[in-house]
Amino acid sequence: MQINWNEIDTVLLDMDGTLLDRHFDDHFWLEHVPRSYAQKHTLSLQEAKDILIPLFRSQENTLNWTDLDYWSERLGLDIPLLKREVDHLIAVHPGVVEFLLFLSRHDKHIYLVTNAHSKTLELKMRKTRVGQYFTGIISAHELGLPKEEPAFWGKLRERIPYDPARTLLGEDSETNLSTAAAYNIAYLIYVSRFSSTVTPVPSPRYTSIHYFSQLIPPAGSLSVRL
């Protein structure tokens, strides 16, 4: 893919796995929550995982999956408190701040567009301080649809002005890139290095990067080939 930044006005960026290391989220849901659940119900860690992981999977691709209040009520645990217990694992991917600064210098409209719950957003923006670089931050919970739903991108356009033909979307979800493609968003980038603990695998369908620094063109140019 050839990216000519003169042809792009708006950049939409996912948060977890895209800008931030998904190691935090994977550890939280697959280790920390099961451990806390096991302690509460006097179970082994494996017994807790056997109960919780199918439950989590049943809510994938819905807003419930990222709704901390839903999981607090469903599991009888204080999920926001548990997140704060391991918030030292929250980390920004290498190259992200440099990329955001590049976009700002070239007057792009930069939006964080995430399925994350407002309480998760508050925690992660406070820990990472990257919120200052965005023109706006939109949670799918505000729109009533997750990004996995094709109708999401039209609902988003009611909230922020963007021309799909002049928009770039960065995501670690091929499903979300597919729904964006159906809405004719022109520039689709898959972040294959979504976690520092997982070996990156490029997407067979979308242009893939490890780091956003790959999208910054050489000095004196506004074009980059991937």
Q: Could you characterize what this model shows?
A:
With about 230 residues, this protein is of the alpha/beta class. It has nine helices and eight strands. It has helices spanning about 25-40, 45-55, 70-75, 80-85, 95-105, 120-130, 140-145, 150-160, 175-180, and strands at about 1-5, 10-15, 110-115, 135-140, 165-170, 185-190, 205-210, 225. α9 (about 175-180) links the parallel β5 and β6. The longest helix has 19 residues, at about 25-40. It is globular, with a radius of gyration of 18 Å.
Q: Helix/strand/pairing class, anyone? A: alpha/beta
The CATH topology of the largest domain is Rossmann fold
Q: CATH homologous superfamily of the largest domain?
A: HAD superfamily/HAD-like
Extended strand count = 8
Rg over CA atoms: 18 Å
- Which strands sit side by side, in order, in the main sheet? 4-3-2-5-6-7
Q: Return the CATH architecture of the largest domain.
A: 3-Layer(aba) Sandwich
The biggest sheet amounts to:
6 strands, parallel
* Number of domain units: 2
How large a portion of the residues is in β-strands, by DSSP E?
Answer: 5-15%
Count the DSSP helices.
9
For the terminal residues, how far apart are their CA atoms? 5 Å
Order of SSEs: EEHHHHHEHEHHEHEEE
The level-1 CATH class of the largest domain: Alpha Beta
Portion of residues in helices?
A: 25-40%
Shape: globular
Indicate the low-confidence ranges by residue numbers.
Answer: none
Overall mean pLDDT: 97
Spell out the blueprint of helices and strands.
Layout lengths: L1 E3 L5 E4 L9 H19 L3 H13 L10 H8 L3 H7 L10 H10 L3 E6 L3 H11 L7 E4 H4 L8 H8 L7 E5 L2 H9 L4 E5 L15 E3 L13 E3 L1
Parallel strand pairs: 2-3, 2-5, 3-4, 5-6, 6-7
Antiparallel strand pairs: 1-8
